[in-house]
Every structure is written in C-alpha cells, then in structure tokens.
Amino acid sequence: MLIAAGFLLTLCTALLLIFPPLFVQQTELRLYDLMLAGRTVSQKSGSVVIVGVDEKSLTAYGQWPWPRYRMARLVERLKKLGAGVVVLDFLMPEPDRTSPDVIAAERQRDLGSGAAASGFAPIDVNTQRLAEALAELPTAIGYFFELSPGVGGRPGSVPHLPPGMVVTATPGVTAQWPVPARLIRGVPALTANAGAEGFTNAQHDMDGVLRRVPLLLRYEGTYCPSLALTAVLLTSGERNLRITRDAFETLLIRGDRPIPLDSQGNALIDFRNRNSFPYFSAQTILEGAPAAGDLRGKIVLIGTWAKGLGDIHQVPSGQSLNGVEVHANVIDNILSGSFISRPMWARGAELFALLLAGGLSTWLLSRPGFVLSFVTVVAMSGGCYWGGRELLLSEGLYISPLLPMTVPLLVLTALSLLKYGIEARKVRQRNRDLIDAQDTIIISMSTLTEARDRESGQHILRTQRYVEILARQLATLPGYAALDEANIELLAKSAPLHDIGKVGIPDHILCKPGALTAEEYDIMKTHTLIGSHALSKTIGGTEHPEKLEFLHYALQMAESHHEKWDGSGYPRGLSGSDIPLAGRLMALADVYDALVSRRVYKRDFSHEEAQEWILARSGKHFDPEVVEAFMAQREEFIRTARELADDE
Hints:
The chain is of the alpha/beta class. It has 3 domains: 43-100 and 130-336, no CATH class; 348-423; 453-643, Hypothetical protein af1432. The strands form 5 sheets. Strands 1, 2, 3, 5, 6, 15 and 16 form a 7-stranded mixed sheet that branches. Strands 4-11-12-13 form a 4-stranded mixed sheet, with no helix packed on it. Strands 7-8-14 form a 3-stranded antiparallel sheet, with no helix packed on it. A hairpin with a 5-residue loop joins β7 (203-204) and β8. 38% of the residues are buried.
C-alpha cells in the first residue's frame, strides 16, 4: 500500500511537470529568481556606458521630450568624447513640434489657411540637425514591433539593418517565433541617416517580470535585430548570423559564439549588478565635463532615466531597471559570451529527476527506520535544489528543481500520514482484541461463580448495569473527574467478578436454603478474601501486569463490596473514602438487587421498599454520594430490574 501510494503520488506530480498549471509555472519563475540572485556579477565586457536623461538634466534643460537639436548636440558631444557606437533608446515617429517651421505650419493649419492648408510640408530643422549628427558616427535608433495584428503602428518597409548583416536559418527552427504585424519607427530623415535600427520589444513573463528578450524577429521576410544586438553588430565587421538547432537547443551563432534561445526565440538575460555600468547624466555630457578617455571606443546607450518617464521594467532581483539598463545587460551578455541556457532536454531531465526522487523516497519510506529515511528524503530534496542552483550559478544552465525537490517532501508527508493511519488501525485492532480477551476472561471467570452459586446469571448482568449507571451519574460531579469513559467501562466489566470468591465456599454453606449459623456466616464472609487473593495471584502471575489493569477494579470490588461507610463491614473494616470506589458502587448495586429479587428464603421487595431501606442506611452502610446517584437514576434502576428480571 505504501509503495503504491508513493508511486501514484510521484506519477501525479509528473503530470504537473508535463502539463504545468498556472501556480506551478508561477512558482518555478519565483524559484528561478531566487537561484539567479547568487549569480549577479559586474559588467564583464567593460564596453557599455549609459547616458541618462535624469532629474538633473531635466532641471537644467527643461521638460521631456527635448528638442531634437539638443539631442543632436548630445550626439555630437559623444562623438567628440570618442564614443564608438551611440545608441538612442527612443521612439521618434513624429516631427519635432518644437522646430520653428513645424510650429509655423501648425499655426497655419489651425487657422485653416496658408502653406499647411494647401498641403505644403514644413521643413523640420531640428530633426534635420539630429539626422546630420547621427550620420557622423556609428549610431542605432530604436523602433517598436506591434505583435498583435490590427493594433497600433503601421505597415511599412523593413527597418534599416546594420550594413552587411546576413542571417541564415535552418528550415523550421523559427516556426514558433512571433511574427510582427506592424511597427512604430522613427521619421524617415532619422532612419535614413542612422547607422541602423533595432527593435526595443521586451518579453515579460506572466508575472510581469522581465527575464528574457527576443534578439531577432522576422518581418516582411527579413530578420530584424533587437536594439542591443544592433549595437553589438555595429562594433565590428562580424555581421553574419546563423540560426540553427543542435540536439539540445536553439542557437543564434555570431562568428564562433553561440547564443542559446528558447523556442520563442528569446534569450534569458544574465543580469549584472545594477551599478556595474558607468553612468553619466546627459547634462554632464552636454556641458563637456567627462574626460575624453571615459567614453572612448565604448557603446554609449542614451535613454530616459528620470522617474516618471515610464520606461521601467521589473527584473528577477526584485529591482526596477530602466529600459536602457536592460539593453546594457543584453549587450554585455553578447559581448562577454555569458548566457543562461534552458535546453530542450531540460524538461526531460526534470522528469527523470522527479521520477528518481519519488521512487527512492517511496522505497526508503516504505521500509523500517523512519528517522534515517526522513533525514535521507529531506537531504534528497535539498540536494535537488542545491544541484539546480549550482548548475545555474556555475554553468548558466537552468534546470528547474521545483518539482524534483517537492516530490520527496510530498511522498514523505503522504506516506507518513498513511503509515500513521495503518499503525492507528493496527492499534485499534489490538485494542479490540484486548477488549475481547478481557471480556472472555471475565465471562470465563464469572461462569465459575454461576456454576456454584444459587444466584442466576441475570443477577450478574443486573449488578453490572447498576454499577455502570451509578458510575456515569457520579462522573457528572466535580470530584469524580477520574471517571472517564474508559474507567466506567472497566468498572462495568469488573462487576461480574465481585462474588468470584464464592467458588471457595463449601457447598453445604453456599447452597444452604435457610439461615446460616454464626460459624457458617464467618466462613461465608471469607469469600471476599478468597476472591481478592485469586485475582491478585492472576494479576501478579504475568510479566506485564499493566495489561490486566481491568482486573484491579475486579480485585477491589471482590474484596470491598461488603465494607460499610461507617466501618462496620468486612473483611477489613474500612470506612469512608478508604473503601475503594469500586467497592462502594458494588455495595449498593448488590444490596439493591438482593432486595428486589425473590429468593427461596425471602420475598422480593418493591423498588420503593428497597429505596426506603437504602436511604435509611445512607452514611452508615452506603456512601451518601453513591446514594444520591442512585436516587438521581432510580428510573434507570427500575427499568434495568424489569428488563433483566429472573425467569419465574
């Protein structure tokens, strides 16, 4: 049962891996973020610099967007400072409305006359100035692909690619890649003069966190590079790209350096420490403050940096990065050859690890030695996480340890509960067997009494019921907390043995129909000691007397059911609470049954007569509280006497 349950649970967990529901996917993403936190390092290539339009720049030069002549000045300053490639992370699809000619044309348009009304196109001198600046050095500007058909953007010609860029692809490799429907790109004057264009799309996961980006997308039959890849291609003459698939994963190969991609064409970003990229305020550049060597030969990314400008992305570190920082990370990944890979066989490896961990856990937990099995299973679960984390940190290989590390814990929990249930069932069965054994012993021993005593078996059943009724009533009182259900049952079971000592009384005395002489009565009184002695030897004759606990009540009852509250009883002359409770209960039960039952030497009393007789001896013969319990349950006594009456 344990092995079957463990294997079934393992197979169910395997189904979660093959067909992962939303909560599993989300948990895997969070676990990936947790493991990735230990991998972050500083920039490896040393080739990327960021220039941001920050709060200081806006304070000095006014609100955003800036006039394009100012952006032209920024590009010109970067050229003088020796920048190798300048990348503008901006979308500029409209004319610059701060250009004087554009302002004049808009005024004429709004007044409904003049050049604008007759279809005259104004000259955007600010855009022309920026276009001229872009043409003076290797530059790249951004555009945006609209991936949902019919939403935003406009159909257009293929964006300006890096000169000499060639992409070859193995047939069928890009079949699952998204196909752009439209694009938003800069005005023609800018796109024609820039060195190249690159798309700025980013692929956010279902939880809104940016972990991967596309590097190439196919538009109008042509492969177009991202802004980060465009910047890298502009830094060297190596512009031949090849998309292929080996036995394990999809690869984008540039030169001799492969870049791993997922089935959607996205590359997992190997994030760097946030402060690892040199940063300059746009104001600092415009004012000529940096030393020339700070930017010489670098890829300079220009983007918005001030809060409120909107280009913010949540990343695995729990931080928010500007879009220009995301591009910087991707560029450094490509230049340094540092990538995170999730090969096609990763899911198969996870499935194999899951089945192995589940099978071993099931085998261990189905064997004896729970502590060792528990420690081993927990260590196995921790080992799955440690192994997955080490592969990611040292090799950049992402194999999710979530379900392989979860299944041993699930098997541990389920099999532990199942083991507990099985053992509990065994304990219940042993208890039932023990109770049956107790009942058998009591019945066997009470049969001895029936065989020799003139009193019937009904007397035994009635006194047993009377004792139980009295005990349950006393249990409702504050001073009798020890009378729980188990003890009440033991008292009732013990009742049939109260007169077992009569087996040691000679027949001529035990069966005498008339009154006993004083000498005979003295012998008759010894039945209490004979019974207690026999039960004591029975209890003491076993190696585990605690297993015969039920006979302790029988011993007390056999010895003390003729003791009296005032100390005038026999055989010990005990009084008050020194008399065991079992004896006090049986004392009243035995006397009541003797009174209301017919004997050859006496008539039967009515209940009222017996009740009056008992009340008269409360505090003398009987425990007053037991008498009160009798009065509270007198209807039960009457019903029991009628139901279990002797045959006429």
